Amino acid sequence: MADLDVGSLPICGRDNRLKGMLTDRDIVIKAIAQGRNPADCTAGKLAQGKPVTIGADDDAEILRTMSSHQVRRLPVIDGHDLVGMVALADVSRALSDRPVGDLVDAITKS
């Protein structure tokens, strides 16, 4: 993550299908904060639940999906293949201030 300057990484199985997402928050909360060495933990043990995704052709669904699931990053799937990631920063660069502000507000509510 540090080498790539990213806050999350996809976890794919041998079949190249997305199995989960590992975030920097997962590492901090589930390893470091509990006194565990992250190097001794597998990505699968730190990641949690089924990842929320967006289809490669579903651009109109990005805001609603991020908002309803309170996530800042979405893996982009084409069929069963992981083809990319879209982050809140990507959305903020592409949209006007109002929708982005509404999205940030929805994501950061407890």
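The record above closes out task 2.4. Task 2.5 opens with a second protein, given below.
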Amino acid sequence: MNLESYIRDIPDFPKPGIIFKDITPLLAAPEGLRACIDTIAEAYRDSGITKVLGAEARGFILGGAIAYALGAGFVPARKPGKLPAETTSAQYSLEYGVDTLEMHTGAVGPGDTVLIIDDVLATGGTAAAKAELVTGSGAVVAGYAFLIELDFLNGRDKLGDQRIVSLIHVA
């Protein structure tokens, strides 16, 4: 299945010069969504995944479905102040500053094997921050999965020797 045919380019969003990769057409197409979830789940089926970690908002959509397909739990990573209990945090760099992700303290820990999921791998900063949350809690990162990888930004260079599964590559 050509998943790329479900992705819509939105020029100059969220700012001029950016071409936003809109995944909402894929999410709305049952066959496209099923192919995405099934392909990623199959790639990690025998990896002992106990938790899937995804960041808001598109990482929630994909991560929850992949966790279900793998028989694993789902852990949300959110912007500061959005989670109700005690949290742990990790900062990451953006082209225009610094941002932070948080997860509940104890959401993952020793004995957990975690798959980190998101819609797009761009510069790798967000994914690296998620890995910091996981390893800082004593869990193991099994790998990463992305719907789209923007190869020209070399984001995988920030993720070390971990397994990375990306379904669509943009050169």
